[in-house]
Amino acid sequence: MDLIRPASPLQEDAATPRNAKTTGSKRRLAAAAAVAASLLLSGCGGGAAPQGAEQAAAADPASGANASGAINVCGGKDASGIYKGTVEEFTKSNGKVTAKYTEIGATTDEARTQTVQRLEGKSTECDIFLTDVIWTSEFASQGWLLDQTKLVEASKDRLIPSTVETTKYQDKYWASPFFTNAGLVYYQKDKVAKPETWQQLYAEAAKAPGNGYVYQGKQYEGLTVNFLEMLYSAGGEVLDEEGNVKIDSEETREVLNFMSDGLKNGSADRAVLTYNEDPARLAYESGDFGYQRNWPHVFRLLNATPLAGSFGVAPLPAWEGGKASGVLGGWNLAISAHSTNQAAAVAFIDFATTPEWQKHVAMDYSQAPVNEAAYSDPAVLQKMPFATELLASVKGAKPRPISPVYPQISQAIYKNVYAVLSGTASTEEAVQKMAEEITAAKASF
Nearest 5 degrees, angle CA 105-CA 87-CA 102? Predict the structure, then answer.
């Protein structure tokens, strides 16, 4: 369980009006600590889920039609421009609601921290949060979100089923899918071949200094995704269908050794240990590498550089002797339980998920729509020629482990994967530690 933590003075200031008095801060911290202790006793005993999800209010699908006023949409770094672009177009087309976008984190991890602080503090600053697909169980279990079941069911028939499942917890839907994601490989056609297997990609990358592979190897959520893409394709898993921990496996050892060897033999540049998405893209744009693993939005950005026309786009490769398996990514639109304009939030979600705007998600921002029909639209195919391959990747992608304690599970993965890649732990040490930490995380809820 991700326990509600007592606010630090900095956290408290972030959710408190600037002119608020601070003389009672010690009393407030003591009260917050008492609340946290109470939740620890009542929320985690016997593995029972918190009562927040059961008591949550539901969004009214009809309320958006008469909405007015202003809303604030909050989320992470807007690398592709899709968040600000959607907010601006909604404001223009609606006429009665004014929306703005507030960036609250440069990375996914930072955005989650800032989102949690606001939701825990019952801040009314943000009406809608852009939520990573992996946050649903955690946020819903705490009672931080409006129940969007009726809203999602009204548009469910036009959505890719795997994207709808990312919004589900305890048989209810807690967000609306906005855009989805599956990793892709960008490759320099004059240097390297289209990758069919991970082994082929790494071998090609090691052939010459300009052929190398860049990916997201920094110690954060992106490294979890990069590792799981290989682990799933090799036939491994983190949790089985019953929730049992299965990370201690030969497949895990094989993938860790493979990734580590790739850094030692020059297949991948050691600088990847400092890269998240944007640094990996910028390194590839230098022209000094043959392969890059990144998300669909990079296609549009690369076409605005001297590399335009020189690169190909391919689905993630298979493991030798296995099959390709991506990791489902993407972002959803969640309405804060503390929103002061829930009707306007519904109106914004109605706009962002329409079939018409979902085409713009692909055409203007190179993101993967959640509306399946968009992938076969002629206008989309003209702007995103790899749309058919992308749809296949999205449909075939597997979710990350579904659990209210996913942040702890992911941290156990990326910390220990990073330890192997950076040379501070052996594969055996890392595998055993991963299994122990994931088991402990699951036992805490």
Answer: 25
CA distance 117 to 43: 19
Paired sense of beta strands 311-315 and 184-188, if any: antiparallel
Would strands 172-173 and 168-169 be described as parallel, antiparallel, or unpaired? antiparallel
By CB neighbour count within 10 A (0-12 exposed, 13-18 middle, 19+ buried), where does 302 fall? Answer: buried
Report DSSP state, residue 3: P
Choose among 289, 294, 295, 299: nearest CA to 268: 289
Is the confidence at residue 40, as pLDDT, over 80?
no
Query: Could you tell me what percent of the chain has a pLDDT over 70?
Result: 88
DSSP labels, 321-375? TS----B-EEEEEEEBTT-S-HHHHHHHHHHHTSHHHHHHHHHTT--EESBGGGG
pLDDT digits (tens, 9 = 90+) for 204-224: 999 999 999 999 999 999 999
**DSSP H or E segment with residue 314:** strand 311-315
Kindly tell me if the per-residue pLDDT of 39 is higher than 50: no
The answer to whether the CB of 43 falls within 8 A of the CB of 50 is yes
Q: How far apart are CA 68 and CA 348, in angstroms?
A: 11
The beta strand positions in 67-225, using DSSP E, are 69-75, 97-103, 128-132, 168-169, 172-173, 176-181, 184-188, 213-214
Nearest partner of 158 among 378, 391, 358, 367, judged by Cα: 358
Q: How many CA atoms lie within 13 Å of 396's alpha carbon, on the beta-carbon side? A: 19
91-133 per-position pLDDT tens digit: 999 999 999 999 999 888 899 999 999 999 999 999 999 999 9
- Taken in order 62, 363, 227, 217, the sign of the CA dihedral is negative
Q: What's this model's pTM, rounded to 2 decimal places?
A: 0.76
Longest CA pairwise span in the chain (Å): 66
CA angle 166, 106, 10 (to 5 degrees): 100
CA dist., res. 445 & res. 431, Å (int): 22
Q: What share of the chain is helix, strand, coil (3-state, %, to 5)?
A: 50, 15, 35
Q: Which residue is listed with tokens 């809203």? A: 151
Question: Which amino acid type is present at position 434?
Answer: M
How do beta strands 97-103 and 168-169 pair? unpaired
Q: For the purposes of burial, counting CB atoms within 10 Å of the CB of 89, is it exposed (0-12), middle (13-18) or buried (19 or more)?
A: middle
pLDDT at 42 over 70: no
Distance (Å, rounded) from C-alpha 119 to C-alpha 4?
10
